[in-house]
Amino acid sequence: MGTQKGKKTVLNFDSEEDVSKALAKYTADLSEKFIKEKGSFTVVLSGGSLIDTMRKLVEPPYKESVDWSKWWIFWVDERVVPLGHDDSNYKLAYDGFLSKVSIPSSNIYAINDKETPEGAAADYEARLKQLVESKILPLSAVSGFPKFDLMLLGMGPDGHVASLFPTRPHRHEKERLVTFITDSPKPPPPRITFTFPVINSASEIAMVVTGAELAYMVDVALGSAPPPDGIPPPCTEVSAEEELTWFLDKDAASKLQTSG
């Protein structure tokens, strides 16, 4: 296992609206870059407020200029509920983003919602391995895990990312690509989630964090605040092979001593 880490950039914006504009340009620029380099763009989504913050991407000029036909969509974590359920990250993404652009449905990798959490995780992992075999997903030369082009992540006030929570053992999983959790401290309890080896093998990661309720955890991850209980939360473990970019609004960055 290699330990090579990419660079980290912290971008501070006056408002969530400014974060949304910057995130759209960042994503569209990466889409163009990866499609030019390799003919596809593999994007991993999360839940929470992220999809709303991606709203500028489905407006002009990006709605028309991005080559949506070359996008492949995945989820870093998902609640094991029917895809049409209000708790589903797929439904959140479909309503706010996927229904507004022309990504081929065959390129959208929702979970199998008929499975148990364990079965859904195993199924998702098997489908990722098939994409590796068919050369859609390359393997990281550093880690040997599948390498996505872009992961769009958020975090919780407790510092969780994906469904990797501070007090659950899944954050330490090193072998599997996808694992499952049946006792998430946040409802709904059954979920599947990518593991850190997959998350940290991504070429680019955007950590999109807005709102004052996240300011303390931003300071833990990027500043000088000591971690709660002395244990670094999962958000401190995120790294990307090329670049990890934090997108912060003024409220989320309010406890940081310096502006980046």
Secondary-structure content class: alpha/beta
Query: Number of helical segments?
Result: 7
- Main sheet: strand order: 1-9-8-5-2-3
Please state the overall shape, judged from the principal axes of the Cα atoms: globular
Low-confidence stretches: none
Q: What is the CA–CA distance across the termini?
A: 32 Å
Query: Approximately how much beta-strand content do the residues carry?
Result: 15-25%
Report the radius of gyration as a whole number of Å.
17 Å
**Number of separate strands:** 9
- Helix content range of the residues, please? 25-40%
Mean pLDDT score, rounded? 95
What does the main sheet amount to? 6 strands, parallel
Helix and strand sequence? EHEHHEEHHEEEHEHE
Family: Belongs to the glucosamine/galactosamine-6-phosphate isomerase family. 6-phosphogluconolactonase subfamily.
Keywords: Hydrolase
EC number: 3.1.1.31
Catalytic activity: 6-phospho-D-glucono-1,5-lactone + H2O = 6-phospho-D-gluconate + H(+)
Q: Outline of this structure?
A:
The protein is an alpha/beta fold and about 260 residues long. Helix content is about 25%, strand content about 15%. The protein has helices spanning about 15-40, 50-55, 60-65, 90-95, 115-135, 195-200, 215-220; strands at about 5-15, 40-45, 70-75, 75-80, 150-155, 180, 190-195, 205-210, 245-250.
